[in-house]
Every structure is written in structure tokens, then in C-alpha cells.
Amino acid sequence: MPSKQKSPSSETRKQAHSEARRPVWAEVSLGTLAHNLEAIRKYVNPPHEKRRTPRKILSIVKGNGYGHGGPQVAKALEKAGSDWFGVTCTDEGIAVREAGVRKPILILTGFVPGEETRLLKHNLTAVVHRCDQLPLLERAARRGGRKPASFHLKIDTGMNRLGIAPSDVDCFARQLGKCKHLQLTGIFSHFASSGVFADTAVGKQTREQEERFYAALDRLRALGIDPGLIHLANSAAIVSRPETWADMVRPGAILYGYHPGYDPAEKRDEAERLLPLKPVMSLRTKIINLRRVPAGEGVGYDATFVPERPSLIGVLAAGYGDGIHRSLGNRGSVLVRGKLAPIVGIISMDVTMIDVTDIEDVAVGDVATIYGSDGDHVLLANRVARSIGTVTSDLLCAVSQRVERVYAR
Ligand SMILES: Cc1ncc(COP(=O)(O)O)c(C=O)c1O
Description:
CATH architecture of the largest domain: Alpha-Beta Barrel
Number of domains: 2
Bound molecules: pyridoxal-5'-phosphate
Structural class: alpha/beta
């Protein structure tokens, strides 16, 4: 059953979305986003801990701000006090810069050869995850002139994806010595399984990653290199592993209001208690047609839904081309008039069918909430994600370009 939570009424929502467009829109509450950021900032800066400078927050706004609109959420987060931003590539970074964001922006996935000149031109901070990127960045920095270009070094501590191996630290240091136009201002790694607390090899992985990271850091310092800002923690580590917080934390999922999955699953309840968050996005559409379908007749492609009783089927103006995950067909539900209406049949690119037989007074034009809040009710995106075996960020990032984002305080 949908749980209750205070939010704007259906009437307010109808006004927020411009009426003369295809009715599919994502409501993004910038006030809620700022609330989540503030909650995280307080959480990682507990009053009992005496630090000279508060621990910084690098807000992850890649993937178009987890579907919320990267430049818009970055602007709102900067105003709310975020210290840094993280995007995946130069193009995402430029979009955030051009929105007017002044704080540093880290290009998390590094750069492909040729991309580094544009990266530096827009005052973005590069990530070096292979030693052979240093000469490329140095050349671009030399051509760019003025002051040394700052960059962060990524260490691969066990994810086996991106980053230099701890054993390559010496080689990195030698090469850096030849780069007069570069300045190392940060060092980081990414956890593979920070939400896993099971008594298994995977459950021990985060600790091992930390150990490898700090060994690499010690070696770098022994070679006379100041690493700058040290950062490691993603959402699960931020909430559940305070020992990983270092100088700066990198929240993604939790900024947008959702705790990641944990093993064991009960750990999520503890996370929700420790750091209460509010979902930022509600994805909505409207019923654009109602059909009476007799018992025994198929609905949608391949007739995968055949009602056993005469049914009233609502057609929603949104499909997988908008970000309604196709695997919700015949499995998921949406909120209409505060009730759950099952999704029936295969989800099409542009439309989705729902069974509204049991929804009193249902009418064409009614708002359907795919996930988020509907008046006093809420259908959480993480529940939807879990029901189809995926993660919340997958659902949020899937909200496509043709979906209008409506920003509210
Ligand atoms: C390097 C890095 N840091 C932080 C994050 C944020 O992760 P999460 O959404 O789990 O907080 C990501 C996301 O994948 C990432 O790639």
C-alpha cells in the first residue's frame, strides 16, 4: 500500500505542469534537495568531532543529476552550500558551468585524448586514472598558460575498473615530476560494495579497499607529494561507514532522497533512521483514454494481459521512451486518486495501460504518479526499483529528455 506523506494537492500539481503539452512531467523539489544536502552536511560533521575545517560535500550531479536535471540541481545545490560537484565527462561539466555554477567541478570518468583542452578551458577539474594521461594534460595545461591546472588522482583499490594500481604510485610520481603545469589537488578511490556488511569476502572488501588506498597515500607522501583533498565515500559509506569520510564525501543517491540497497537488507532501516531523507522527484503523467475491455480480450502488444472480468483500462501518456521501466509491465502499479492501479500488458514506448476498474470516478485527465507523492500518498521509487530487481538510480536516470522537468521550491 502507498504510505502517507504531506505534499502538494493534485490541483497545485496540475497548475505546475503546462497544460498545452504532452502530459508527462517530473516534479523536482529544490527545497527537498537542499534539505537532503543539509542533512548530509550535518551528519558528516558531527559536533563531537573537532576538525579545523568542516568536511566538504561533493554533490554527484552526473547522469543529468540522476535524471533531475544536472545544471538545475547543481545551481540549487551550490546555493544550498555544496562545495564541489561531480559529473562524468566534459560535456556534462560544461553544461553545469554554463548554468552559472562557480564551485569546482570534478570530471569523474576522466578524459579521452583530445577532450582535455576543452576540459581545462571551462575551468573543470580533471581526473587522472591512467599514468599516460599525465603528458596529455600537461601539454593542454602548458598551452592554456596562466596558473597550474589542478587535477585529482584516482586509485583503483579493488573495483578493477578505473584508477591507477597502488603499485603504479612510484611511476605516477616520476611522471608528475616532469609536469610543471599540473598540480595534484586531490586523491580518491571508489568503493565496490560499501553497502555489503555480510560476513563474506564481499563484506570485507570495503575495509580492504581502504587499506590499499591509505597504503598508496602513504607511499605518495613518502615520495614528497602532497595529495590534497582525500575522498572515498559514496552514499552507503557516508551513512554507514564514518571511518571512510576523510576530507570530503561524494553523495549521489542519498542527495536525491533514496538510500541504496544493503546486505543484510535490514541495514537499510538503520540507515533510514540514522539519516532521514525525502524523495526529490515525482514522475507523473495523465490518463488520455479510458476503454471498456470485455473479459477474455487481450490488452496491448502480444495480448499479455487478458482480464478475467469486464475491465476499465486507462491509457497513460507515457511509456518506456519517457523512463517508465519496461519490466514494470504486468508487475508494477501507479497512483491514481490515491489508489494503486496495476500496470497491465507490455509497456509501449509512448503509452502504458493501467487497470482502473476499482478506482471510483476515474476520468480522462486524471493525474497518474509513476513514483513519488500524490497528495497524502507516496509510491517510493526504491520500492518500484526493487520490485523489478534494479536500483533506484537506474529508474531516476531513465527519465528521458522529452519529459518536462518542473522545478518547485
Ligand atoms: C566516483 C563516484 N563517486 C560517488 C558516486 C555516488 O554514488 P552513490 O549514488 O552510491 O552515492 C558515484 C556514482 O556512481 C561515483 O561514480
